[in-house]
Amino acid sequence: MILIAAASAILAATNQSRIEVPFRIADNAIIVDAELNGKKVSVMFDSGFSGAFVLNQSINVGKPTGKINLQDFVGVFSANTVEVSSLKFGGKAIEPGQMQIVQQPMKHMSVSYGTHCDGIMGFEVISGQVVEINFEQKKFIFHPESHDISALPADGKTTFLAKMLPIGMNSIEMRVGASNGKRMILALDTGNAFYAVTHRDVLEKLGLWKEGNAPKFMGQSWVASGPVKSWSLMMKDTKIYGVPVDESVWSIIDLPSSSASHDGTVGFGFLKNFNITVDMNRRRVRLENFTGKASSVPQADVGLFATYDSAKKRMRIAVVVPGGPADKAGIKVGDDLLAVGLNDVGILSYRNLQAMLKGDLGSTVTVDISRAGKYTKYKLERAYLFNEAETQQAQ
Q1: What is the pTM of this model?
Q2: 62, 110: one domain
Q3: Does residue 114 contact residue 351 with C-beta atoms inside 8 Å?
Q4: Number of separate helices (H) and strands (E) present in the chain
Q5: How far apart are CA 268 and CA 265, in angstroms?
Q6: Which of 65, 120, 248, 395 meets the CB 3.0–4.6 Å disulfide criterion with 296?
Q7: Is 335 exposed, middle or buried (0-12, 13-18, 19+ CB in 10 A)?
Q8: Residues 275 and 157 in one domain
């Protein structure tokens, strides 16, 4: 999650109006069309980014007006900024106030989400309003200020009302309960493609992981500052923002947390099941479950990750999970991935590729591999590659 100090945006509409703005669902992401400083852009909505916009630096939205330091899950990095002079969001004009555009090299965004994407739209754009993120109908609904979600009934079964913690105005921080009764602080983060993300040291602090223990299966995740080691953890009997969750698989960053004020984020895998209304001024969040689901069904995997090599114009194996099916079959980092099943991979979205490689426990998938010009077809049997929390291992 990126944290920066930012002023709230103000929509150019009266408090009596209700504005609806459509969005698209891409690979575990919300994609919004906007006009920014006269340029038409498509951006991923990331409620975990407290600023206004991060755009590919190749898009000319004006001369840099300053610099800013950004912080993500693991580190801090510097970037140029450009002032927002004009903004239309879903055809509606928005008063930019003091909003800034952060410019970074972000050419990977379109490949990552399987659709055209120029960057990120952050929480600042909507934070001054009572806003519903309606996953069911794929639209934002900007409610009038008089729309008080705390006055609406919440039955604790399909409708829930959660209270934000008093940790500033830059993120939506709320409590999550673990199976051992301990609690953690996780931000509501639509930009997190996983179910939920936390850190190894947070698990150790809560007694969910023994200090010094190495996970059985270690993989890799990408954050704004680059690739980091990560692993999957099965969490049982949690309560996320008041919603009971029987079991879910979390992504664990194998580095200490970069912030003492929160422990990670709840991501798209959980949030997509709800219509979510955020009222920052009253510090309340309402969740309406429309799918009937809250848990994440465990998926088996083959344990390999690949990224596009622009020089070779092929997908190259970047990570092979030790002890996983791909590792046991002899697939190596640096091998070229040509096909999965009957599908040539080409320039494939990272998330689409992972979806093709995952499936039911014990099911099989073939992968075509090239190593130094030698072609080999492997048949891999999918296996569970997640670890279990400490309290669950002892049961």
Answers
A1: 0.85
A2: yes
A3: yes
A4: 6, 31
A5: 10
A6: 248
A7: buried
A8: yes
DSSP letter string over 127-172? TTSEEEEETTTTEEEEE-TT--GGGS---SSSEEEEEPPSS-SSS-
| Longest Cα separation, the chain | 67
What number of CA atoms fall less than 13 Å from residue 14's CA on the CB side? 2
Mark whether 108 and 194 lie in a shared domain. Answer: no
Tokens 């109006």: give the residue. Answer: 17
CATH of the domain at 327: 2.30.42.10
DSSP letter at 359? B
CATH number of the domain residue 189 falls in: 2.40.70.10
Same domain? 249 vs 331: no
Are residues 138 and 18 both part of a single domain? yes
Virtual torsion, Cα 262, 268, 274, 277, nearest 10 deg: 50
Tokens at 110, concatenated: 């379109």
Per-residue pLDDT tens for 278-327?
A: 999 999 999 999 999 999 888 899 999 888 887 888 889 999 999 999 99
| Tally of structural domains, the chain | 3
Query: d(Cα 341, Cα 338) in Å, to the nearest integer?
Result: 10
**Torsion sign (Cα): 29, 274, 294, 282:** positive
Residues 357-380: tens digit of each pLDDT:
999 999 999 999 999 989 999 999
Q: Is residue 389 part of a domain?
A: no
Range of the domain at 340: 304-381
Domain final position from 142, 159, 180: 142
d(CA 284, CA 167): 13
Q: Which of 142, 165, 195 is the last residue of a domain?
A: 142
Kindly report, residue by residue over 72-122, the tens digit of the pLDDT: 555 556 788 999 999 998 767 888 888 999 998 877 788 778 789 999 999
